[in-house]
Each structure stands twice: as structure tokens, then as C-alpha cells.
Amino acid sequence: MEATAELYMAYPHISVIYLRVIKWGKDGIIATSDSGICMTITMQIVFAEKSISSTHSMKQLNEKTKGACKSFGAEKTQVDIFVVKGSPRWDKEHTFPPEQPEKWIALASYEIFTPNCCAW
Predict the structure, then answer these.
(1) If you ran DSSP here, which 8-state letter would residue 31 be given?
(2) Is the pLDDT of residue 29 over 90?
């Protein structure tokens, strides 16, 4: 399950998505959901990196549905990566100047979203 809380136009918005686990092993977890109209979601949890990535990919749609999806911003693939603050990856990507800047990655501390969630 993925739960997100955000503010849209000064109003709280909460979404809950149920994901089907594709693989659960010693190295991590991969889960997916295609229940949305516009996007397929794939989540990957990598234990070694202490990171979670969430990829929202466009489905193959007819032009009418594609236009509706585009009207609220669902028109291309989006990748979000969450990294534990203080982990080696966090430290590497938060040095100044960055060792390897990756403009497409949105970094955040996983601890902000789920305090005391996991024993990494």
C-alpha cells in the first residue's frame, strides 16, 4: 500500500494505492498497480541502498482518454526516489557541489513520510 498526503490549492488531499507484490526477496521488493485510468505504478524498494523508487508510467490509451489524462497533468512518465537521510546515497547526493547531479531525481528523506517505519 502506498499512501500520500499533499496540499492542492490549500486543501488536503490523501490518496491510497494498493500495490500487488511481484517480487519479495532478500535484496528488495517490487510491486505494481494498474488500477488507475491513466498510469501504471511500479514501486521498487532496494534494501542495500535504503531507497524507494516509484515510477508512474502512461498506459496505452485512446485519444479521448489521453486528452482527459493530460488535462490534469498525467501525460508522461514520472519517477520519484526517496532515500533515507544520512545513508551513503543521501550523503553522496547532498554534497556541495554534487558529485553526480541527476536533474530528474526528486530526493526526499523517507523518514519525513513514515517516521519510525522501518528498521533499516
Answers:
(1) E
(2) yes
- Could you give the 3-state DSSP secondary structure of residue 88? helix
Among the residues of 1-116, which ranges form H helices?
63-71, 88-93, 110-113
C-alpha to C-alpha distance for 44 and 41, rounded to whole angstroms:
10
Contacts of 12 (CB under 8 A, 6+ apart): 5, 6
Answer whether 28's CB lies under 8 Å from 47's CB.
yes
pLDDT digits (tens, 9 = 90+) for 57-69: 999 999 999 999 9
What is the Cα–Cα distance from 117 to 64, expressed in whole angstroms? 41
How long is the chain?
Answer: 120
Nearest-5° Cα angle at 87, 21 to 81: 45
Under 8 Å between Cβ of 46 and 38: no
